[in-house]
Design a protein that fits this description.
The chain is an alpha/beta fold. The protein is about 35% helix and about 15% strand. The strands form 3 sheets. It has a 7-stranded mixed β-sheet. Helix 4 packs antiparallel against helix 11. The structure holds pyridoxal-5'-phosphate.
Length: about 425
């Protein structure tokens, strides 16, 4: 009897594609209870940027837990929270000249997004929010209302309103200005479109097919929003914490969003933690107006502080990510070159290959697993193979993973050429 299939809800998903029982993990490797090893090009969907069981984060966590220090404390003052706030201020905010208040929401990405949407509406007194085609912001109702995927939206079971979806960078045919509609309706009081409270954007669409917005487009978006008093929310839940090469994914665009959502790798160790950051003038919350039992979990503060102190006090990690990014890009370009119409997408270590035949990426993911590589798909039709190794992966492990991916792509594309066309 398989207790997972017997007892666990039909909603389970990753365990269907990777049908093994995982037992151990170390850096960029995970192991099943049968002893099989896998190279990890998945990184807990972006929650494990510093790899599995990173000893530099584990040691302070074990010391903290063994010391009798407080573990659960809602949003009370604790020593662990003080150290985290100080490290976040000194290593993240000050060096980037960012002046943000830090709000601890419930511990998942969708909580950070819900808080951002609520705050934008409260501050502006407007109800409408604009999201982008193929966006993904989480599975609670507010986040779903600005998410593109129709299957996920249907799951809400109620109309998802007070939002509209507008074209992301590159969505419209080449040569078309994707922001033209936004510019026009905001400038025209007769447009019939209610002025939005906010626009919410991912700089790279992690779940929606790895489309990466150009820096110039993000800059234009920010300017349009600023000109019309519309708040700009950057959802950096997946693309943030170094994933695209800088701590915040919006840094190369030279913009300062009004509100930023962070989660996934902010704790550094795979422990749940989420933050919503916003300009101090926007901090109009009444005490307790948005709360939750698990806001700011002390073990997560400990590993988050260790991650910031270990990886963000100098430029070492960023330099390593830049080197791995170049190697990854080269490997992906080579694999993409084997299939007509395949295209490399993404930015930094959040990259992959789009295949015009929507069956190919799923086949590659399946073959990869059989060969000893964890890699998932992205996009509305799962048409993109998505590669997201730990930022700390060695050049050797990255090369091994790319070899496995190349082998899987060869087998999968051969399978596709033998399969009857649809
Ligand atoms: C950009 C983005 N926002 C929000 C979320 C939701 O995060 P969580 O699954 O922790 O609620 C995700 C999850 O993949 C995401 O990629």
């Amino acid at each position: 009897m398989d207790v997972f299939e017997d007892l666990e809800s039909n909603v389970r998903s990753y365990c269907r594609t990777w049908d093994t029982v995982f037992a151990r993990a170390d850096g960029s490797r995970v192991y099943g209870e049968d002893g099989r090893g896998y190279v990890d090009f998945f990184s807990g969907a972006g929650a494990l940027n510093y790899g599995h069981n990173n000893p530099l984060l584990l040691r302070p966590l074990l010391r903290y837990l063994e010391s009798g220090a407080i573990v659960h404390s809602l949003d009370m003052k604790t020593q662990a929270k003080r150290r985290f706030l100080e490290a976040f201020r000194d290593l993240v905010l000050i060096p980037r000249e960012l002046d943000y208040k830090v709000m601890f929401t419930g511990p998942t990405g969708t909580n950070a997004v819900e808080a951002a949407l609520k705050l934008a509406r409260k501050v502006t007194g407007r109800h409408h929010v604009l999201g982008f085609t193929n966006a993904f912001h989480g599975m609670t109702l507010g986040s779903l209302s600005v998410t593109g995927n129709s299957m996920k939206r249907r799951g809400a079971g109620i109309p998802l309103n007070n939002t509209s979806s507008i074209p992301y960078d590159g969505y419209l045919p080449p040569g078309t200005d994707d922001l033209i509609w936004l510019r026009q309706i905001l400038a025209d009081s007769g447009s019939g479109v209610d002025k939005p409270a906010a626009v919410i954007v991912e700089t790279v669409q992690g779940e929606g097919g790895l489309r990466a917005a150009r820096a110039a487009w993000l800059h234009d978006l920010s300017e349009v929003c600023r000109a019309h008093g519309v708040l700009l929310i950057v959802d950096d839940v997946q693309a943030g914490c170094g994933r695209t090469g800088t701590f915040f994914s919006f840094e190369p665009a030279g913009i300062t969003p009004d509100i930023v959502c962070l989660s996934k790798s902010i704790s550094g160790y795979g422990l749940p933690l989420a933050l919503t950051l916003f300009r101090p003038e926007l901090d109009l919350w009444q005490p307790g107006e948005h709360n939750g039992t698990f806001r700011g979990h002390n073990p997560a503060f400990v590993t988050a502080t260790a991650a910031l102190e270990t990886y963000w006090a100098d430029t070492g990690l960023q330099e390593r990510v830049a080197a791995r990014t170049a190697e990854l890009r080269e490997g992906l370009e080579e694999i993409a070159g084997w299939s007509d119409g395949a295209q490399v997408r993404g930015r930094g270590l959040l990259a992959g290959i789009f295949y015009p035949d929507t069956r190919t990426a799923a086949r590659i993911a399946r073959q990869s697993f059989a060969a000893g590589l964890l890699v998932e798909t992205s996009g509305p039709e799962s048409e993109v193979i998505k590669v997201m190794p730990p930022l700390t992966i060695s050049a050797e492990d990255l090369a091994t993973g790319l070899d496995l991916l190349a082998g899987a792509a060869t087998t999968a594309t051969r399978e596709a050429s033998l399969a009857p066309s649809r």
